[in-house]
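Figure 6 in text form: structure in, sequence out.
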């Protein structure tokens, strides 16, 4: 009975996939990151949350992100390219309702423009100029 209720509730909530650029969260405290995650959870159910780095994380940093429900992804270089590929993969091959992207620059703007007609997109940034650039689209 409980499983059936949980299944029904999950069907009614929006499914969210999150993609974070590591440098945007690197300097935030656990409390600040948890607050941001909770605000995203208020919109729907986070089904996947990845944070991308092009540097090796120290053990305590890795644990910090894991405890907050984020999956650290270490890439050889060019974080934006790996994020773009993962976003497009999610866009075309999964059943998510919302994609959340946290970035510090506008390098993912072409991907966001291409995806906005197919799925609801939320962009998080700490830079006012970047926010203005994204808001035009």
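Output sequence:
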């Amino acid at each position: 009975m409980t499983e059936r209720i949980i299944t029904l509730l999950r069907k009614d909530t929006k499914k969210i996939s999150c993609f974070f650029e590591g440098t945007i969260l690197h300097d935030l405290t656990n409390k600040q990151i948890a607050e941001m995650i909770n605000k995203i959870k208020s919109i729907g159910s986070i089904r996947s949350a990845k944070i991308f780095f092009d540097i090796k994380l120290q053990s305590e940093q890795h644990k910090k992100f894991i405890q907050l429900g984020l999956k650290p992804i270490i890439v050889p270089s060019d974080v934006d390219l790996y994020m773009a590929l993962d976003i497009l993969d999610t866009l075309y091959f999964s059943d998510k309702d919302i994609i959340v992207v946290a970035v510090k620059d506008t390098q993912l703007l072409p991907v966001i423009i291409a995806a906005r007609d197919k799925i609801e997109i939320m962009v998080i940034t700490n830079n006012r100029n970047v926010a203005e650039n994204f808001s035009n689209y």
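Caption detail: Strands lie at 14-21, 44-53, 71-74, 98-102, 120-124.
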